Amino acid sequence: MNTAAPLVKPLLEVRDLKQYFPIAMGFFKTALLKAVDGVSFTVQRGETLGLVGESGCGKTTVGRSLLHLYPITGGEVFFNGVKITRETLPAFRRQAQLVFQDPYSSLNPRMTVGDIIAEPIDVHHLCATKQERAERVNELLQVVGLSSEQATRYAHEFSGGQRQRIGIARALASKPEFIVCDEPVSALDVSIQAQVINMLEDLQRRFGLSYLFIAHDLSVVKHISRRIAVMYLGKIVETATSNELHRFPLHPYTQSLLSAVPVPDPQKARAIRRIVLTGDVPSPLRVPSGCPFRTRCARAMPLCAQEEPVFQEAAPEHFAACHLLQKA
Questions:
Q1: pTM as predicted
Q2: Pairing state of beta strands 12-26 and 74-79?
Q3: Is residue 149's pLDDT more than 80?
Q4: DSSP one-letter code for 84
Q5: In degrees, to the nearest 5, what angle opens at C-alpha 232 toward C-alphas 228 and 234?
Q6: How many Cβ atoms from other residues are within 10 Å of residue 148's Cβ?
Q7: CA gyration radius for the chain?
Q8: Cβ–Cβ < 8 Å for 193, 220
Q9: Is residue 221 within 8 Å of 230, Cβ to Cβ?
Q10: Mean pLDDT of all residues in 261-283
Q11: Which of 37, 155, 263, 296 has the smallest CB count inside 10 Å?
Q12: CA-CA distance, 71 to 258, in Å (whole number)?
């Protein structure tokens, strides 16, 4: 008799996601900008997966592409075991929402806060009457720490932190299971950042939400995420649990990012060896051969220019794409 525990299906599964954009290079000439090039990951129910990397590495494009805000170039997205296609997309969009980075430009200045929050309710026809709609809006405002009296006001009357709370309330309106948080605190003051992060954690526990949390601040990502994926130039180069990644980073790029995280203890800060990367991030229009990180890696070998490293499991739940793993 087989007593092995059944495998738990992930809530979200992304397989070999590609997002290429044609760029005009002159008369009758175009080139493909490979913003996302073969990204795969899963998100379990109730889990937060952090996605980190430098600006321009493709993090935001991953989040918007898996939600099919852009027509994807290649790959597959599965939600609750169902492949996202044109037929299944409407149901998926009710269950998967997005919190934008900029709380100033993501809210319509001509709409009241109540109408902004109710927009997903109207699109998906979730309330039968105006009274039910108003009650749902008031409930959502209270959930994110605002008052029902503020439903008749406009976005410009609120602070940045309050606007982001409105954006989160809008994302919750359709009762989703999964939310892409696209750098939701990077535009906010540090003191407000902590409040929003704590609120996102409370909402996750209360409603059983799953997050893809996109950010460039590793200290913020460590606090909220169970697992972290590190992106560089359109590819994921390392994934691990949050504690494992911070204790034993394997990829040279991850090691460099972690060495730059500020440490409040001066003695510990002096003991950390800062890894400074040379050169600039290559253009996605001209990705280096082999390993995309080799042009900035101090430990690059001839093999790195010849072959792209395989994304492999180096320890339980710890994957990396680096030829150095084979030399260890």
A1: 0.91
A2: antiparallel
A3: yes
A4: -
A5: 105
A6: 15
A7: 21
A8: yes
A9: no
A10: 73
A11: 263
A12: 34
Say which residue, 224 or 7, is predicted with more confidence.
Answer: 224
3-state class (DSSP) for residue 40: strand
Kindly report, residue by residue over 12-63, the tens digit of the pLDDT: 999 999 999 999 887 788 889 999 999 999 999 999 999 999 888 999 999 9
Q: Is a pLDDT exceeding 80 seen at residue 279? A: no
Query: CB burial class (10 A; 0-12, 13-18, 19+) of residue 267?
Result: exposed
Contact 171, 162 (CB under 8 A): no
**Phi, psi torsion values for 274, nearest 5 degrees:** -75, 125
Closest CA to 234 of 75, 106, 85: 75
Contacting residues for 205 by C-beta, under 8 A, at least 6 apart: none
| Helices 130-143 and 160-172, axial angle in degrees (round to 10) | 130
Alpha carbon separation from 86 to 72, 83, 121, 178, 260 (Å, rounded): 12, 10, 21, 19, 43
Residue 163's alpha-carbon distances to 110, 171, 174, 220, 325, in angstroms, are 14, 13, 19, 20, 45
98 contacts 64 by C-beta, under 8 angstroms: yes
CB within 8 Å of 33: residues ≥ 6 apart: 20, 21, 22, 23, 284, 285
Nearest by Cα to 140 from 165, 177, 108: 165
With 70 as the cut, is the pLDDT of residue 6 above it?
no
Torsion of CA 137, 143, 149, 155, to 10 degrees: -80
> Token pair 């949390």 is at which residue?
213
% of the chain with per-residue pLDDT over 90 = 72
Residue 316, number of CB atoms within 10 A of its CB: 8
Residue 232, both tokens: 């560089």
3 state DSSP class of 73: coil
**C-alpha 95: how far from its chain's center?**
16
